[in-house]
Design a protein that fits this description.
With 264 residues, the chain is of the alpha/beta class. The protein has two domains: 174 residues, 3-Layer(aba) Sandwich (Rossmann fold); 78 residues, no CATH class. The strands form two sheets. Strands 6-7-8-3-9-10 form a six-stranded mixed beta sheet, with helices on both faces. α3 packs across α5, α3 packs parallel to α6 and α5 crosses α6. The longest helix is centred in the middle third of the chain and has 21 residues. It is globular. The structure holds adenosine-5'-diphosphate and magnesium ion. Adenosine-5'-diphosphate binds next to β2 and α1. Magnesium ion binds next to α1.
């Protein structure tokens, strides 16, 4: 527990009459891939929003690396290394692939507006460093050869990879992914799973993954948290979750969306 990178303690979120999260407690250990699963409306995205700061819990606390995040605006949390992707792609389609990734780096920039205006040596040095980091991130996801294409020309699967490169370049400590496999075919989903694993192993990024694709979840997760009606139904290893009768009854066995034959 001492090593938990993220700790949520009795987090409650209400939207008017809807109790989206009721006293959710969970941890994400450093260096793990922890998945959050559950039926539509279970509160998965709301939990990510509470961690990144776009939603304010009515009560409870959220600690990152032992420090409270509650009340801090999203950009401050991002500055501390808590980053995310969204359920819907947010790619700048008119910009090149490389420019999209460079945009992800700018939160780390140290130069001011005047540096940029006068293109000072400091500005040019940082632009070069940003460009190098962006190319490196594109190489990591396998899109290096497409760096100069308009992002809108990429196939959907590659736009997803671009989104990953854009967040990788910002060097997150904790990366929250909201349904990154949505819309991907089976092969692209496997490729994404491999990428997420490499992000953990080679880049040391701790990942919290919200995902409907059970094969992917069972394949990449170290731990799984199951939410149902805004509460924690179960927590455990993929094997424990697959064998948990409550989970099977509430979710895995009666899923009305795309299911798999159990994966692993
Ligand atoms: N901004 C919002 N305003 C009102 N209700 C919301 C809002 N966001 C989520 N909800 C509600 O909170 C519940 C949990 O939603 P969500 O976290 O999006 O679920 P999931 O991501 O697991 O599908 C749902 O009942 C949803 O309708
Ligand atoms: Mg959601």
């Amino acid at each position: 527990m001492a090593d938990s990178l993220l700790q949520c303690r009795e987090v409650c979120v209400r939207f008017g009459g809807v109790q989206a999260l009721s006293s959710v407690s969970c941890t994400v250990e450093k260096g793990t891939i922890t998945s959050i699963i559950g039926p539509n409306g279970a509160g998965k995205t709301t939990l990510l929003n509470a961690v990144t700061g776009t939603v304010d819990p009515a009560s409870g606390s959220i600690l990152f690396a032992g420090e409270g995040l509650t009340g801090l605006p999203p950009h401050v949390r991002a500055g501390r290394g808590v980053l995310r992707t969204f359920q819907n792609l947010e790619i700048f389609t008119n910009m090149t692939v490389l420019e999209n990734v460079m945009a992800g780096r700018h939160r780390m920039g140290r130069y001011g507006v005047l540096d940029a205006f006068f293109r000072t040596p400091r500005y040019r040095r940082e632009e070069r460093a940003t460009r190098d980091a962006a190319m490196h991130a594109l190489g990591f996801v396998g899109l290096e050869s497409m760096a100069l294409l308009p992002a809108g020309e990429l196939a959907y699967g590659n736009q997803r990879l671009l989104e990953m490169a854009r967040v990788i370049v910002a060097a997150p400590d904790l990366l929250l992914l909201d349904e990154p496999a949505a819309g991907l075919n089976m092969q692209e989903t496997r490729q994404l799973g491999e990428l997420i694993r490499r992000m953990r192993d080679e880049l040391g990024i701790t990942v919290a993954l919200v995902e409907h694709d059970m094969e992917l979840v069972m394949d990449v997760s170290d731990r799984i948290l199951v939410l149902s009606f805004g509460a924690v139904l179960a927590e455990g290893t993929p094997l424990e979750i697959q064998r948990n009768p409550e989970v099977v009854a509430a979710y895995l066995g009666t899923d009305d969306e795309e299911t798999t034959d159990g994966g692993a």
